[in-house]
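Q: How would the structure tokens look for this protein?
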Amino acid sequence: MMTDESEAHVDYTPGSGNVFADLDLPDADELLAKSELVHHIVSLIRRRKLTQKDAAVLLDTTQPTVSDLVRRRLDRFSLERLFVFLNRLDREVQIVIRPKREGAHPAAITVRTETRRASTPKATAA
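A: Here is the predicted structure in token form.
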């Protein structure tokens, strides 16, 4: 049982939101973008209950490449190749270039996923 308040204190440093930057890795924004894209690809593969072999056929690649995706081997994939995989999984990839946010330093690369909502059918005139 801890009774001394100094024993209960834990020092920590708040994260930046990018673990790769927190680890001071080069190209941290690109690594985070790849990580998020791979996560989305693997989630789609799992949601469809595809085997790695079936996913490889769909993605027009090999089973070992799908294994690298599942194991998050980010160094094996370019952003462009991940975009192609997403297209083959029926996902649109949109690249938006805009001025950096006020106070943001430096400008960053971000990935944002969007869930398409079911649209309400339009009424037609009879």
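The first helix runs from residue 5 to 8.

Residues 19-109 form a domain with the 434 Repressor (Amino-terminal Domain) fold (CATH 1.10.260.40).

Upvote if useful.
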